[in-house]
Amino acid sequence: MRSDLKTSGIRIIGVKGIKMVEKGDDLVSLVIEAAKKQGTPIRNGDIIVITSKAVSKSEGRVYRLRNIKNSIAASLIAEETGKAPEHVQAILREAKRIIRLVGHHLITETHNGFIVANSGVDLSNVDGGESVVALPKDPDASARRFRACFRKRGLKVGVILSDTHGRPFRRGDINIAIGSAGIAPIADLRGKKDLYGYKLKVKQIAVIDEIASAAELATGSANEAVPVAIIRGYKYRVSSKGAKILIRPMKQNLFI
Predict the structure, then answer these.
(1) 51: Cβ–Cβ under 8 A, 6 or more apart, which residues?
(2) SS3 state at 86
(3) What are the structural domains, with CATH classification, of the chain?
Protein backbone atom coordinates (compact mmCIF):
# COMPACT_ATOMS: atom_id res chain seq x y z
CA MET A 1 0.00 0.00 0.00
CA ARG A 2 1.32 3.43 -0.90
CA SER A 3 1.65 5.95 1.92
CA ASP A 4 1.96 8.97 -0.37
CA LEU A 5 -0.67 9.46 -3.07
CA LYS A 6 -0.99 12.49 -5.36
CA THR A 7 -4.20 13.15 -7.28
CA SER A 8 -5.04 16.41 -9.11
CA GLY A 9 -2.92 18.51 -6.79
CA ILE A 10 -4.21 16.86 -3.63
CA ARG A 11 -1.58 14.91 -1.73
CA ILE A 12 -2.29 12.13 0.77
CA ILE A 13 0.63 11.47 3.12
CA GLY A 14 0.64 8.57 5.54
CA VAL A 15 2.43 9.45 8.78
CA LYS A 16 4.72 6.56 9.69
CA GLY A 17 6.80 5.96 12.79
CA ILE A 18 4.10 6.65 15.38
CA LYS A 19 4.45 4.26 18.31
CA MET A 20 1.63 2.00 19.46
CA VAL A 21 -0.72 4.48 21.12
CA GLU A 22 -1.54 4.03 24.80
CA LYS A 23 -3.88 5.70 27.26
CA GLY A 24 -2.81 9.24 28.05
CA ASP A 25 -0.50 9.66 25.06
CA ASP A 26 -0.23 13.13 23.54
CA LEU A 27 -1.37 12.24 20.04
CA VAL A 28 -0.78 15.69 18.61
CA SER A 29 2.87 15.71 19.68
CA LEU A 30 3.35 12.19 18.34
CA VAL A 31 1.89 13.19 14.97
CA ILE A 32 3.89 16.42 14.68
CA GLU A 33 7.16 14.70 15.56
CA ALA A 34 6.60 11.71 13.26
CA ALA A 35 5.60 13.90 10.32
CA LYS A 36 8.70 16.03 10.78
CA LYS A 37 10.98 12.99 11.14
CA GLN A 38 9.81 11.49 7.84
CA GLY A 39 10.39 14.77 6.02
CA THR A 40 6.77 15.90 5.65
CA PRO A 41 6.23 18.40 8.47
CA ILE A 42 2.66 19.56 8.98
CA ARG A 43 1.77 22.86 7.34
CA ASN A 44 -0.97 25.41 7.89
CA GLY A 45 -4.00 24.43 5.83
CA ASP A 46 -3.37 20.70 6.05
CA ILE A 47 -6.13 18.32 7.11
CA ILE A 48 -5.08 15.74 9.68
CA VAL A 49 -7.04 12.48 9.51
CA ILE A 50 -6.63 10.32 12.61
CA THR A 51 -8.03 6.81 12.84
CA SER A 52 -10.61 6.36 15.58
CA LYS A 53 -8.68 3.46 17.07
CA ALA A 54 -5.64 5.63 17.80
CA VAL A 55 -7.91 8.20 19.45
CA SER A 56 -9.79 5.57 21.46
CA LYS A 57 -6.56 4.06 22.74
CA SER A 58 -5.28 7.46 23.86
CA GLU A 59 -8.59 8.12 25.62
CA GLY A 60 -8.60 4.80 27.48
CA ARG A 61 -11.43 3.17 25.56
CA VAL A 62 -9.76 -0.26 25.56
CA TYR A 63 -11.37 -2.98 27.71
CA ARG A 64 -10.06 -6.42 28.67
CA LEU A 65 -12.64 -9.05 27.80
CA ARG A 66 -11.96 -11.05 30.96
CA ASN A 67 -12.92 -8.02 33.06
CA ILE A 68 -16.32 -7.59 31.40
CA LYS A 69 -19.28 -9.16 33.20
CA ASN A 70 -21.83 -10.21 30.63
CA SER A 71 -25.59 -10.01 31.08
CA ILE A 72 -28.24 -12.61 30.25
CA ALA A 73 -29.08 -10.65 27.10
CA ALA A 74 -25.43 -10.70 26.04
CA SER A 75 -25.25 -14.46 26.60
CA LEU A 76 -28.35 -15.08 24.49
CA ILE A 77 -27.11 -12.88 21.64
CA ALA A 78 -23.69 -14.53 21.86
CA GLU A 79 -25.28 -17.94 21.31
CA GLU A 80 -27.09 -16.68 18.23
CA THR A 81 -24.17 -14.78 16.70
CA GLY A 82 -21.24 -16.92 17.74
CA LYS A 83 -19.52 -13.93 19.31
CA ALA A 84 -17.94 -14.04 22.76
CA PRO A 85 -20.48 -13.01 25.46
CA GLU A 86 -18.04 -10.41 26.80
CA HIS A 87 -17.67 -8.90 23.34
CA VAL A 88 -21.45 -8.74 22.99
CA GLN A 89 -21.74 -7.07 26.39
CA ALA A 90 -19.26 -4.41 25.30
CA ILE A 91 -21.32 -3.92 22.14
CA LEU A 92 -24.54 -3.53 24.13
CA ARG A 93 -22.93 -0.98 26.44
CA GLU A 94 -22.21 1.25 23.46
CA ALA A 95 -25.61 0.67 21.83
CA LYS A 96 -28.69 2.84 22.04
CA ARG A 97 -30.67 0.06 20.37
CA ILE A 98 -30.27 -3.02 18.20
CA ILE A 99 -31.21 -2.43 14.55
CA ARG A 100 -30.62 -5.90 13.07
CA LEU A 101 -29.59 -9.28 14.44
CA VAL A 102 -29.08 -11.73 11.58
CA GLY A 103 -26.71 -14.68 11.82
CA HIS A 104 -23.29 -13.42 12.86
CA HIS A 105 -24.26 -9.81 12.18
CA LEU A 106 -25.24 -7.42 14.95
CA ILE A 107 -26.12 -3.94 13.70
CA THR A 108 -26.78 -1.26 16.29
CA GLU A 109 -27.38 2.43 16.72
CA THR A 110 -24.74 3.87 19.04
CA HIS A 111 -25.40 6.55 21.63
CA ASN A 112 -23.84 9.01 19.18
CA GLY A 113 -26.32 8.00 16.47
CA PHE A 114 -24.08 5.90 14.22
CA ILE A 115 -25.71 2.88 12.56
CA VAL A 116 -22.83 0.44 12.57
CA ALA A 117 -21.85 -3.19 13.07
CA ASN A 118 -21.09 -4.15 16.68
CA SER A 119 -21.50 -0.55 17.91
CA GLY A 120 -18.05 0.04 16.44
CA VAL A 121 -16.55 -2.15 19.19
CA ASP A 122 -13.57 -3.85 17.57
CA LEU A 123 -11.17 -6.69 18.33
CA SER A 124 -8.58 -5.90 15.65
CA ASN A 125 -5.32 -4.06 16.24
CA VAL A 126 -5.65 -4.09 20.01
CA ASP A 127 -3.78 -7.00 21.60
CA GLY A 128 -4.55 -10.08 19.58
CA GLY A 129 -8.11 -10.66 20.74
CA GLU A 130 -7.77 -10.29 24.52
CA SER A 131 -9.34 -6.82 24.54
CA VAL A 132 -11.83 -4.71 22.62
CA VAL A 133 -11.71 -1.04 21.73
CA ALA A 134 -14.81 1.17 21.62
CA LEU A 135 -15.29 4.30 19.55
CA PRO A 136 -14.33 7.64 21.13
CA LYS A 137 -17.01 8.83 23.55
CA ASP A 138 -17.52 12.15 21.74
CA PRO A 139 -15.63 12.17 18.41
CA ASP A 140 -16.41 15.80 17.56
CA ALA A 141 -15.18 16.94 20.98
CA SER A 142 -11.99 14.92 20.49
CA ALA A 143 -11.45 16.51 17.07
CA ARG A 144 -11.94 19.99 18.53
CA ARG A 145 -9.44 19.23 21.29
CA PHE A 146 -6.83 17.99 18.83
CA ARG A 147 -7.32 21.02 16.60
CA ALA A 148 -6.85 23.33 19.58
CA CYS A 149 -3.64 21.48 20.49
CA PHE A 150 -2.31 21.87 16.95
CA ARG A 151 -3.18 25.55 17.09
CA LYS A 152 -1.20 25.96 20.33
CA ARG A 153 1.76 24.59 18.41
CA GLY A 154 1.27 27.25 15.75
CA LEU A 155 -0.49 25.02 13.23
CA LYS A 156 -3.86 25.95 11.73
CA VAL A 157 -5.28 22.67 10.45
CA GLY A 158 -8.54 20.82 10.03
CA VAL A 159 -8.98 17.56 11.94
CA ILE A 160 -11.01 14.48 11.00
CA LEU A 161 -11.48 11.30 13.02
CA SER A 162 -12.10 8.34 10.72
CA ASP A 163 -13.62 4.91 11.27
CA THR A 164 -14.35 1.95 9.02
CA HIS A 165 -18.05 1.39 8.31
CA GLY A 166 -19.94 -1.00 6.06
CA ARG A 167 -22.56 0.06 3.50
CA PRO A 168 -25.99 -1.57 3.40
CA PHE A 169 -26.25 -2.12 -0.35
CA ARG A 170 -22.61 -2.46 -1.38
CA ARG A 171 -19.82 -4.87 -0.58
CA GLY A 172 -16.67 -3.66 1.09
CA ASP A 173 -16.02 -1.22 3.89
CA ILE A 174 -14.94 2.40 3.64
CA ASN A 175 -13.72 4.97 6.10
CA ILE A 176 -16.11 7.72 7.11
CA ALA A 177 -15.69 10.76 9.33
CA ILE A 178 -17.10 10.22 12.81
CA GLY A 179 -15.64 13.44 14.17
CA SER A 180 -14.32 16.67 12.71
CA ALA A 181 -13.21 20.18 13.59
CA GLY A 182 -12.25 23.21 11.56
CA ILE A 183 -13.56 22.00 8.21
CA ALA A 184 -17.06 22.31 6.77
CA PRO A 185 -18.55 18.78 6.79
CA ILE A 186 -20.77 19.41 3.76
CA ALA A 187 -20.29 21.27 0.48
CA ASP A 188 -23.75 22.52 -0.42
CA LEU A 189 -24.04 22.87 -4.19
CA ARG A 190 -27.77 23.55 -4.28
CA GLY A 191 -28.51 26.52 -6.49
CA LYS A 192 -25.30 26.19 -8.51
CA LYS A 193 -25.47 25.41 -12.22
CA ASP A 194 -23.96 22.41 -13.98
CA LEU A 195 -22.07 22.47 -17.30
CA TYR A 196 -25.34 22.86 -19.21
CA GLY A 197 -26.89 25.53 -17.05
CA TYR A 198 -29.15 23.19 -15.08
CA LYS A 199 -29.61 24.44 -11.53
CA LEU A 200 -28.75 21.80 -8.94
CA LYS A 201 -31.56 21.15 -6.48
CA VAL A 202 -30.38 18.52 -4.00
CA LYS A 203 -26.60 18.20 -4.44
CA GLN A 204 -24.78 18.16 -1.11
CA ILE A 205 -21.35 16.54 -0.87
CA ALA A 206 -20.20 14.91 2.38
CA VAL A 207 -16.71 16.37 2.10
CA ILE A 208 -15.31 14.98 5.33
CA ASP A 209 -16.49 11.46 4.49
CA GLU A 210 -14.77 11.65 1.11
CA ILE A 211 -11.57 12.87 2.77
CA ALA A 212 -11.73 10.11 5.39
CA SER A 213 -12.16 7.48 2.67
CA ALA A 214 -9.27 8.86 0.65
CA ALA A 215 -7.04 8.90 3.72
CA GLU A 216 -7.47 5.14 4.18
CA LEU A 217 -5.52 4.61 0.96
CA ALA A 218 -2.52 5.74 3.01
CA THR A 219 -3.37 4.52 6.50
CA GLY A 220 -4.79 1.08 5.71
CA SER A 221 -6.70 -1.07 8.21
CA ALA A 222 -4.53 -4.13 8.79
CA ASN A 223 -0.85 -4.20 9.82
CA GLU A 224 0.34 -1.00 8.14
CA ALA A 225 0.86 0.84 11.47
CA VAL A 226 -0.03 4.19 9.87
CA PRO A 227 -2.77 5.68 12.08
CA VAL A 228 -2.64 9.20 10.65
CA ALA A 229 -2.73 10.79 7.22
CA ILE A 230 -2.08 14.35 6.12
CA ILE A 231 -4.31 15.68 3.35
CA ARG A 232 -2.48 18.50 1.60
CA GLY A 233 -3.62 20.79 -1.19
CA TYR A 234 -7.37 20.54 -0.69
CA LYS A 235 -8.97 23.96 -0.29
CA TYR A 236 -11.64 23.68 2.36
CA ARG A 237 -14.00 26.02 4.11
CA VAL A 238 -13.35 26.49 7.83
CA SER A 239 -16.37 25.71 9.98
CA SER A 240 -17.28 25.18 13.62
CA LYS A 241 -19.69 22.39 12.70
CA GLY A 242 -18.73 18.79 13.40
CA ALA A 243 -19.33 15.42 11.77
CA LYS A 244 -22.50 14.82 13.75
CA ILE A 245 -24.49 16.98 11.34
CA LEU A 246 -24.03 14.24 8.72
CA ILE A 247 -26.19 11.83 10.70
CA ARG A 248 -29.58 11.74 9.06
CA PRO A 249 -32.46 12.21 11.53
CA MET A 250 -34.40 8.97 11.99
CA LYS A 251 -37.62 10.59 10.74
CA GLN A 252 -35.86 11.16 7.39
CA ASN A 253 -34.52 7.61 7.20
CA LEU A 254 -35.91 5.69 4.23
CA PHE A 255 -34.60 2.23 5.11
CA ILE A 256 -35.09 1.57 8.84
Answers:
(1) 161, 162, 163, 219, 227, 228
(2) helix
(3) 4-57+136-248 (3.30.1330.100), 63-132 (3.90.1660.10)
Question: Any idea of the CA torsion for 166, 171, 175, 179, to the nearest 10 degrees?
Answer: -30
- Positive or negative torsion for Cα 251, 211, 140, 94: positive
pLDDT of residue 1: 41
The CA distance from 237 to 109, in Å, is 30
Rounded to whole angstroms, the Cα distance separating 104 from 102 reads 6
Give yes or no for a contact between 164 and 177, defined as CB atoms under 8 angstroms apart. Answer: no
Which residues have C-beta within 8 Å of that of residue 197, sequence separation ≥ 6?
none
* Distant-in-sequence, close-in-space partners of 66: CB < 8 Å, separation ≥ 6: 86, 130
pLDDT (tens digit per residue) in 46-98: 999 999 999 999 999 999 999 999 999 999 999 999 999 999 999 999 999 99
Q: Which helix (H) or strand (E) holds 229?
A: strand 228-232
Name the phi and psi angles at 106, rounded to 5.
Answer: -130, 105
pTM of the model: 0.92
Structure confidence by residue, pLDDT tens digits, 103-127: 999 999 999 999 999 999 998 888 8
Of the candidates 195, 194, 211, the residue with the CA atom closest to the CA atom of residue 203:
194
Stated as kind and residue range, the H or E segment containing 31 is helix 27-37
Terminal CA-CA length for the chain? 36
Contacts of 255 (CB under 8 A, 6+ apart): 168
- Which of the 8 DSSP states describes residue 11? E
Other C-beta atoms closer than 10 Å to the C-beta of 8 total 6
